[in-house]
Amino acid sequence: MPLIFVGGLIFGFGLGFSHMARPEVVLNFLQFTDFGLLFVMGGAAVVTGIAFALVPRLLERAPLTGDTYGRRLKSFDRNVLIGGGIFGVGWGLSGICPGAAYASLGVGNVTILWALAGMFVGAYLQGFWRSQRAESATTPAGAD
Prior knowledge:
Blueprint: H1 2-17, H2 23-30, H3 36-58, H4 78-94, H5 98-106, H6 112-138
Helix pairs in contact: 1-5, 5-6
């Protein structure tokens, strides 16, 4: 748990330092007027790609947790495509993604609470919808 906290601190500090916690910077990127976000995301992708490729080859277990390395692959299906589209529209409208929204609070943007509230409500509604779908799929027809 402390490791996750430290990772979150580093992530939040990096977002604040790079100004990616400011929705106007993200919206400027989406309007093709500021490409700083491209360099931030590209740098993160390079570091992550190298770590995912090299660390499991160099170490048998994670150094801080002792867990074995493994990959969990999710198939690309209709739900991923629709969910990604909805996420992208929300990101474009609000100018902020969930991780950066919390960092945005740290830099004093209290109006981001509206976007965070929307994220929580959307996640709740999706979970409720999915549980209702699962219940109707397991209930036999005519079992009233």
